[in-house]
Amino acid sequence: MDKTADRTASGKTTWVAPEDRLDAQIGYNLRRASALALNDFAVEFADAALRPVTYGMLVLIDERPGISAAELCRLLGMKSANMAPLLAELEERGLIERDGHAQDKRVQVLALTKAAKAAMPAWRLKVRNHEDRFLQRLTKKERATLLRLLQLIWTEEE
Fold first, then answer.
1. I need a labelling partner for 11 at 20 to 30 A (CA). Which of 5, 25, 51, 97 fits?
2. φ and ψ at 62, to 5 degrees?
3. DSSP H/E element including 68
4. How far apart are CA 111 and CA 139, in angstroms?
5. CA–CA gap between residue 137 and residue 19 (Å, rounded)
6. Torsions phi, psi of 95, nearest 5?
């Protein structure tokens, strides 16, 4: 097994297999890429005061008007306890409306407000700009491959 030499702060040399180095670990690289993406997203959406999670919620509500809060939780992989304050925030900001389901009043259905519907095209453009900047070193084919591989990791088999 080939090993590479690393010099520690004290000047000692340690030997580490290349596959065991920090920069060879998938989780470390995902975290670094995620941090870069989150920072850039924050800059892009500073004026809209949206975070990736709230943007994702709004997009799914836009794509599926009348979606239940429970279904939104399921699609985003969130717990309802974590979702409730975010829904309250979006409602307070005038971005979503919550209504009772016609047949089951225990179910909340969600829809975007007129203001959020009007803002959505600009927000989607901001995300495209953010992703273009964030992924600028990748070709279209590499982006498609990255997306496919990431989805393989977190989506369930049907």
1. 25
2. -65, -40
3. strand 67-68
4. 36
5. 24
6. -105, -25
